[in-house]
Every structure is written in structure tokens, then in C-alpha cells.
């Protein structure tokens, strides 16, 4: 069956360092992948989309990579700040409109 | 402009009661999604509406769950005869169309069934 895995343990990073989050999937060939940020008590907020034929996408301090051979996406935040602390969700396209979601990784940036 | 709104923000109910959750999507968005999020779990797809097309109800967990979208705008998710396992956060999202479109989420309704 299709499966998406994100690190279930919280990731603690020192302010100013690069945070790297991982999204692995199996039994699946998504056309695209999205990353969202979710703060406590709020709905997810879209950050980046990367397509299967794209290796890398950047937006300000954010970078996403997509390796369809490894079936893995990496999400990087450079020069991390305490305000980047949140849960980050990856979501893979399952159809023309449906996304399959990972459980998210909680990121904590310590000052 | 206004984002996606949901009401109520919190709902506590007794087992066996019916509940109605409301979602107001962003104006002009034709696609609307309902998800369920339990602690430590990914978002679970429930139902999808697109324009005037028949909704995709394939994610509804049982026949106690139903949803409608009136006039292509406001949507209501109804859970009949609630069970304790229905306790979760129910999220609504809308997008301009479907496909690669960004989904815009509401703040969710936190449902607790006692």
C-alpha cells in the first residue's frame, strides 16, 4: 500500500543553522509534491510545490529537492530562526485533485 | 480578502449525538476539501467537491458521515450518532480549481466526543 514517512520525532536546531526535513514514500509515483507549514491550532499553509521532473525548487530561505529514484524529498530551511518553529507536512499528489499527507515533523529552532 | 473560515472552532458533544460542521471557502474557489486530522497522524481525506460535479465521497469513513455544498459555496459536514473515535480536528480547504492548485485551509473544528 502507499506510504509516506516523515520523522515523527521533533527536530531541534540551533538558530542560524540549516534545518533539513525528510519525506520518504513507497509504492507510489507522484506527479508532484507539496510542503506545508502548520502552527498549533491552525490549518496548514502552503510553502512550495515541486514536480516529478524538477530536481530542486527554492523560495527565499527554503529549498526543496525531489529524488524520484530514492523516492524522497528533502526540505531545507537555511539561516533558521525561532519563528520557523512549526510542524512541516509533505503531501504527494495521488490523483488530479487528491493529496496523500505525511504526519509531519515538528521543528524547534532554539535561540 | 477573507480566508477559509470554519465554525464552530470547538465542539464538545456526547456520544450518539449528531454534529454539523460548517466551512466557508474563499470566494471564487471551485474546489473544496474536507480532511480529518488526528494527533500524530497525517491529514485523512474525507470528501471533495468541484463545481457542479458529483462529489468524491470515497474518504468518508462510514455512512454516519455526510457532506453537502450548497450553491457551490458553503459546505456542511454532518456526523450522525457520533462515536468517541470521531474525536479529531476537522479541516476544510478550498482551491481555485484542482490539480496543482494550492489548497487554502481553514483553522479547523476541534471535535471532542465524550
| Rg result of chain A | 13 Å
What order do the SSEs of chain A take from the amino end to the carboxyl end, as H and E? EEEEEEEEEEE
Could you say which structural class the secondary elements and strand pairing of chain B correspond to?
mainly beta
Total of helices of chain B: 0
Q: Helices and strands of chain B, in N-to-C order?
A: EEEEEEEEEE
Instruction: Tell me the distance between the termini of chain A.
Output: 41 Å
Overall pLDDT of chain A = 94
Overall 3D geometry of chain B?
globular
Number of strands of chain A: 11
This entry's quaternary arrangement is heterodimer
Strand content of chain B: over 45%
Helix content of chain A: under 10%
Please tell me how large the radius of gyration of chain B is. Answer: 13 Å
Q: Main β-sheet of chain B, in a few words?
A: 6 strands, mixed
Low-pLDDT regions of chain A: none
Largest interface: A-B, 24 and 24 residues
Helix content of chain B: under 10%
Q: Average pLDDT value of chain B?
A: 94
Question: N-to-C terminal Cα separation of chain B, in Å?
Answer: 37 Å
Number of helical regions of chain A: 0
Amino acid at each position: 500500500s502507499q506510504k509516506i514517512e516523515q520523522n515523527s520525532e521533533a527536530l531541534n536546531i540551533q538558530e542560524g543553522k540549516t534545518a533539513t526535513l525528510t519525506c520518504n514514500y513507497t509504492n507510489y509515483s507522484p506527479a508532484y509534491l507539496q510542503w506545508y507549514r502548520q502552527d498549533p491550532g491552525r490549518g496548514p499553509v502552503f510553502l512550495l510545490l515541486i514536480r516529478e521532473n524538477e530536481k530542486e525548487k527554492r523560495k527565499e530561505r527554503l529549498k526543496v529537492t525531489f529524488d524520484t529514484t530514492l523516492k524522497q524529498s528533502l526540505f531545507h530551511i537555511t539561516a533558521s530562526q525561532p519563528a520557523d518553529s512549526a510542524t512541516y507536512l509533505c503531501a504527494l499528489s495521488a490523483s488530479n485533485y487528491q493529496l496523500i499527507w505525511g504526519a509531519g515533523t515538528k521543528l524547534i529552532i532554539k535561540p | 480578502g477573507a480566508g477559509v473560515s470554519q465554525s464552530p472552532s470547538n465542539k464538545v458533544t456526547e456520544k450518539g449525538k449528531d454534529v454539523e460542521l460548517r466551512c466557508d471557502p474563499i470566494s471564487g474557489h471551485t474546489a473544496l476539501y474536507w480532511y480529518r486530522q488526528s494527533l500524530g497522524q497525517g491529514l485523512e481525506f474525507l470528501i471533495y467537491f468541484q463545481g457542479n460535479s458529483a462529489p468524491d465521497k470515497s474518504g468518508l469513513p462510514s455512512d454516519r458521515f455526510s457532506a453537502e455544498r450548497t450553491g457551490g459555496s458553503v459546505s456542511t459536514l454532518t456526523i450522525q450518532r457520533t462515536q468517541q473515535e470521531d474525536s479529531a480536528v476537522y479541516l476544510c480547504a478550498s482551491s481555485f480549481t484542482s490539480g496543482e492548485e494550492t489548497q487554502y485551509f481553514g483553522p479547523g473544528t476541534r471535535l471532542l466526543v465524550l
